[in-house]
Amino acid sequence: MRRTLTVAATTTFTALAIAGTAHAAGPVYHGNDYGYVSGSTVVACDREVDGNGVFTQVDFYGSQATRNFWDGTGADSECGAYGGETNVYAFRVCEDHVGCTGWYRP
To answer: pLDDT digits over 33-53, tens only?
Structure first.
């Protein structure tokens, strides 16, 4: 009986750990601009006054498409933050007309 309970508890714990949302990752920098994923929040921060927009690009588990999360306020003290984003597989930071970082897994 004791062995059965141990196996059941271990299996349940492992399943919960695998099914969880993304953990904190980042920040990932592209010059002075940066982005990160924390739990279910995706953040993009434009810190360069150069006219190029900044976004954090996210690839989700089981999806064929990526989504871009922009810092819509430009190079100021505010960042673009988007909540409720689960199942993040990987992300990178991109600057318009310049390029992107490599992909990072949270």
So the answer is: 999 999 999 999 999 999 999
- Round to whole Å and give the CA distance between 31 and 85: 25
Segment 48-78, tens digit of pLDDT? 999 999 999 999 999 888 999 999 888 998 9
For residues 89 and 14, what is the distance between their CA atoms, to the nearest angstrom?
A: 19
Q: What span, in angstroms and rounded, lies between the C-alpha atoms of 89 and 102?
A: 14
Listed in sequence order, the residues at least 6 apart from 61 whose beta carbon sits closer than 8 Å to its beta carbon are 87, 88, 89
Counted domains in the chain? 1
Domain coverage including residue 31: 22-100
Residue type, 65: A
Q: Tell me if 57 is assigned to some domain.
A: yes
